[in-house]
């Protein structure tokens, strides 16, 4: 009789995507927002105006706080980090720390 063994397939690391909004230069963002609002949208339909607004804000966000990603810590990486730091980091540590990609 052969016993079933769990698959040796390892679960892929989950990618965490985030923006560093704390480091946005507010003066530069305000200036860009002023330039954005100075354009005329009188000839556009409401739907086109909303699309232009959303695309413009998205572009400014990409410019001032680009989207970055990194891998989530595995349980053994988290344990090693806890040993080095001497503190129980809990499950939230996977979101705060990890190898940058």
Can you walk me through this structure?
The protein is mainly α and 101 residues long. The protein has one domain (15-35, 45-96). 46% of the residues lie in helices and 10% in strands. The protein is built from 4 helices and 2 strands, in the order βααβαα. It has helices spanning 26-37, 46-64, 75-85, 93-96; strands at 15-19, 67-71. It has a two-stranded antiparallel sheet. The longest helix has 19 residues, at 46-64. The protein is elongated and about 75 Å long. The protein starts with 14 loop residues before the first strand and ends in a 5-residue tail after the last helix.
Number of helices: 4
Number of domains: 1
Say how many strands there are: 2
Radius of gyration: 22 Å
Oligomeric nature of the chains: single chain
Return residue spans where pLDDT drops below 50 for at least 5 consecutive residues. Answer: none
Q: Give the CA-based shape.
A: elongated
**What can be said about the biggest beta sheet?**
2 strands, antiparallel
Structural class: mainly alpha
Beta-strand content estimate: 5-15%
Amino-to-carboxy terminus distance: 46 Å
The average pLDDT score comes to 78
Strand order of the largest sheet: 1-2
Share of helical residues: 40-55%
Q: What is the N-to-C succession of helices and strands?
A: EHHEHH
